[in-house]
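Notes from hallway chat w/ T.B., transcribed later so I don't forget. T.B. wanted the structure written out for a chain they're using in a teaching module, and asked if we could keep both sequence and structure tokens in one place. Agreed to drop them here.
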Amino acid sequence: MATPCTHPRLLPLDREFFARGPLRVARELLGKVLVRQSEAELLAGRIVETEAYLGENDPAAHAAAGNTARTSVLFGPPGHAYVYFIYGNHYCLNVSCEREGKAGSVLIRALEPICGREEMAKARHVRLLFPSDSVRLTSGPGRLAEAFGITRARDNGCDLTSQKSGLWIADDGFRAGRIRITARIGITKAADHRLRWVIADNLFVSGPRAGR
């Protein structure tokens, strides 16, 4: 039986944190903690990789299609989850930014597990035989969504600034050290824009770690 994991000071960020441009939010989300709380367990992972999407004028952003039934969360109040299904096999978690009425978002690309590794492994069908196996839990947007049980039906539109939602982003006082910036990955439009932030040399970062 897994040992219950507790972690101090996992209070949600306030809405004003997200009511800013995606560039600043993406950078400052590094080191923050994504938390999933249910009656049975607490899952937590430190954000180590993000990508900014700049709204209607960003060809790679879903908001470029305008305010539709699918993208309405991006144009609503900041600090809400925008979840979409991609490649027919996994979900991606974004958080809305900017003031209400102006679209912007940040994709959470990778986490370093803090609490609930055994539960994440069960959700991901991963065996934790060696310490390095933990990398397979939350390194990549699809992996972390599966590890945390994130789906569009369950989480799209949920308030990431409220513990009542069961899924939120917290600040536990950790501060990221050296940061690297690269082009976004896994996209074809505006692929040269340097809008991906990673904690340098972190083993849980997905994809290329090179940057400046």
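Follow-up for T.B.: The mean pLDDT is 92. Might be a good example for the class.
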